[in-house]
Design a protein that fits this description.
The chain has about 775 residues and is of the alpha+beta class. It has helices at about 5-15, 25-30, 35-95, 100-110, 150-160, 210-215, 250-255, 295-300, 305-350, 365-405, 410-425, 455-460, 490-500, 530-595, 600-625, 635-650, 670-690, 725-735, and strands at about 120-125, 130-135, 170, 175-185, 195-200, 225, 235, 260-265, 270-280, 290-295, 430-435, 445-450, 480-485, 505-510, 515-525, 655-660, 695-700, 705-710, 740-745, 750-760. It contains 18 helices and 20 strands. It has a five-stranded antiparallel beta sheet. It has a five-stranded antiparallel beta sheet with strand order 7-6-10-9-8, sandwiched between helices. Helix 3 packs across helix 9 (about 305-350). The chain is flat and about 150 Å long.
Amino acid sequence: MHNASAPLQNANTGLSKKKSWWKSLRTKIIAWSFVPTVIILSAVAWFTFYSYQQVLGDLALKQDWAIAQSKAVEAYAPIANLINAVIRPVILTIDIDYEKPPEVRAQNILDQAQSLDIFDGGIYFLDQQGKVFKTQPPQPELIGQDWSDTPHFRYLVNNPPGACPITDIRTIGPNEKEIVCATWPMHNTQREFVGAGYYCFKIEPTENSVLYETLISLDLGPNVYIVDGNLRIVFSPDPSQIGTGLSTEAYILQLLQGQETSNRFHKGTEDMVISYYPMNNVVDDRMRWLLIKEEGLAAIMEPSLAYRQLLLILLALGVIVPVLVTAYGVKYITDPIQKLIQAAEQVTAGQFNQRIEVKTGDEIETLADQFNLMSAELDDSYSSLEKKVADRTRELAILNSIISVASHSLDIHEILEDALNNTVEQMGFDAGVAIKLEPHPTTPLLMAQRGIEPATAIDLVNRYALAGHGTPAVYPKEVITFGIEDFLDEKLKNQLSLVDFQWLVYVPLSTKGRELGFFILGKHEAGQLSPEELSLLSSIGKQVGVAMENARLYEQAEQAAITTERHRLARELHDAVTQTLFSATLIADVTPSIWKRSPEEGMRNLEELRQLTRGALAEMRTLLLEMRPESLERPDLKSLLTQLADAFIGRVRVPVSLVIQGDCELSQEVKLVFYRVAQEALNNIAKHSGARQVELHLECQPGQLSLRINDDGLGFDLDSLPPGHMGIAIMRERANSIGANLRIESQPGQGTTVELDWRAAGKD
């Protein structure tokens, strides 16, 4: 055990010292509080760098969008010029006779217009409903095809002439050719829409494609591509991407659905700036094409790298210098605190004898002294707690051991003997006796003794005047201890002195306020029990009392079951065998006088007497089988059914025609089910049918068995059985247990038939 007075004195000495203001912890913290300066400087540097990055990013977005705008204008002009150079002469000089039908006007255009061969995707003319009526070159499979489902056609219908809408990519023909078309409406003299011409280019990167050659000649750049209104690529520097759809690219959809035309995205492993601009200044149904430009953020930000590096160097210097200065000052403060932390960790690990020495002259030194004092007190407390835990663990182990031995039996004598032996061993006693209390005036019974002679144990029971007072009918309800001198009986004192007992302990055995018995335990050495040991003995007494009560209740339940079974057998004998024997006695009494008068009638009486005695014998055998169900395993099914029939005849006085065919080996389970079903069927006939004749037919073949029971009784309606009629349900459950099929046929006034069929596994 550590001495806690020294740390306490050191702590008091430290508190009594007069501290100089420059040595106080507060002064030191103030002196070294350059951390806020570092934080502010770091925040300013970070904010400056962040703002610079934001400004550069915004400028990059605007610059990228401006480039996209210029490239869109640059790309649209050649496309417009290419189309206008061919279509405008058609509009102005060829298609000017508005009164002619669209078919005639279309043929005039094809006959007179020049340079139509640039439209390598074909020329198509649509009527007022948007259906194709003429193509160049001829494509009969397209005649009548409806093209009115596009926004470009609707634009032609709903707007006056003056613009040449360009369509999105369209797939036509059996070869699924992809085309884009420049369109022009056809109006009559009343300016009504009567048709349209579609002048189309193929979407394929070949040298013969005028549109592709025109776009590739513009040299728009490696990261620029043109998409239609459905986000399919019309042009890309990479020919393999032409026709590819971008509608599944999340970053494209996010850009187009947002309010900004330029934004930053993370594409793959690279940060990109992506911008778009309409090919015709505004996106509408006249032309929905977009120019999309992608540029790596690193490439855009590359000119700012030098300034950014300088800014990072200044930021690092602004942070590192204050940190170094502050670190030196904090080290002076935190070294003692670190010692405290290490000592506290050791205390947490259970080593309470930790002491630390700090000579700083400030609050930390005071804290160290208080820690030393606390550690000493914890060391003392832990030593005491360990002893209490060990004692409590031992008590619980003893209690569990005694509960285990007391609960393994339902015999009171065995319970008390085992519990007494275990208590004496576990609690360190030298001897003991176990006494069971009996109802007054019966004297208490000695059930077990250990380490003491039986004669002395009996005297101890008979002369239990504990503590020298009290009456024989009163027993203590708590655990008490007493010495040999407390006994009033001198003979008993001498007997106990001879076995060298110094003191005894009385332990009541009780449950629910009822005293069932007690232990008397003795020791040869003088001493006293602790409060914990007295409490443990009290718990032992209650647990043993519970075990004794359980044994008593089990004995009562067993006796009640025996009595109930005796009453049931008496009722069965009275209702069955006794009635049959009474009838046989009456017939036997009158048979001699009847024989003298008429031997024939006397013979009939003798036959009836034979049937009655045979039925009584069968009833007795049936009762014996019910009393000992294992007896059902020995007889075969034929013998069991014969016995049932005889018992039925003797009880009901109704003849039974018993036919048994075949002989086969049956499992006990199958045999028992057939026996129980036949028994239940005959009981139902006896109780309810009023039959005059019963037929019982059993046919046995290898692997199969059939039972049929007929009666000519009242019968019943199977669909109107009362809810409490359980006999049929029980028969079905028994049949299902072996996989047999039970059929019951009955109608009011036409008797009842019960059939039970069983097939062994593997047979149909």
